[in-house]
Amino acid sequence: MQVHAHEHSARLFHGLPPFSVFAPPCQTCGSARSSRNPRYRGGGPPALERKPFCLGCRSSRSMPAIEATKTKLAEADFFYRKLCAAQQRVFSNEPEAFGCYLSAFLSAARSVSLVLQAEQKQKYDEWFASWKESLPSDEQALLINFNEQRVATVHRTGAEVTRRSEAIAQSDFFLAAAREGAQVHISSPPGTPPPQFYRQVRSFNFDGTEAEVVQACGRYLAVLSNLVKSFAERFADETAT
If we measure between CA atoms, which residue out of 192, 206, 213, 9 comes closest to residue 91? Predict the structure, then answer.
């Protein structure tokens, strides 16, 4: 049995991948923006994590000066979306891409609270402990686990990630191949069993429990979004210091 994949040819045979009219809405203000990006069909970041802190929301209330924090959160969101795209690929000429995006995400995401503290130190120091204690225990543990992964990335040999192969349906494989612009030919002698298709699943080990990397990063990003949003709401209408 032979499987041949030719990059950039699938569109000649399958047409362009389907696209949605609207991107996932902002979780802060509920707005949706026009998009013709095929990434929002058949994969991509969950709607919950898209635009974790709306930089374009308008309010009559005066918000604290945390522009650098919002920029850092947007940076983490950017690398999270890159991470999602790398996870979905079935063909890759850059096998190191996932690890590079994960490293960038961990660094940017961990910096969100540090930048917030630098911008609004007095308010942050008075507020952060009570906010953290109000979180569910699993979200508090998530903050600790991701800080450990960031330390491993920056100061040791890299994030502690395991890999395994997971079987996927043939239809999912061909959909992913078409989305990547690859033409796939399968040929085999009569009577040969159908081929099996797989994808790489990467996981963290959090306190003895396997956590798929992309899903865990999405949850972490949502917690950071809550951090920034809660801080902005708590100190709205107060004079920035």
Answer: 9
Take residue 188 and report the two structure tokens written for it. Answer: 């085999």
Cα 45 to its chain centre, rounded Å, is 6
Q: Which domain holds residue 93?
A: 2-6+79-234
In a domain, 56, yes or no: no
Note whether residue 136 is domain-resident: yes
Q: Characterize 45-81 residue by residue with b for buried, 16 or more Cβ atoms within 10 angstroms of its Cβ, and e for exposed.
A: beeebbbbbbeeeeeeeebbebeebbebbebbbebbb
* pTM (predicted TM-score): 0.70
* d(C-alpha 115, C-alpha 85), whole Å: 27
Helix ranges, the chain (H): 10-14, 67-88, 97-119, 121-133, 137-155, 170-179, 213-234
3-class SS shares of the chain: helix, strand, coil, % to 5: 50, 15, 35
Instruction: Give 122-156 pLDDT, tens digit per residue.
Output: 999 999 999 999 999 999 999 999 999 999 888 88
Structure token digits, residue 107: 């660094």
Is there a domain that residue 183 lies in?
yes
Q: How far apart are the first and last CA of the chain?
A: 68
Tokens of 178: 């078409």
At 218, list the tokens.
């999405």
What's the number of domains the chain is made of? 1
* β-pairing verdict for 2-7 and 162-168: unpaired
Residue at 113 is within a domain = yes
Spatial CB neighbours of 156, under 8 Å, sequence gap ≥ 6: none
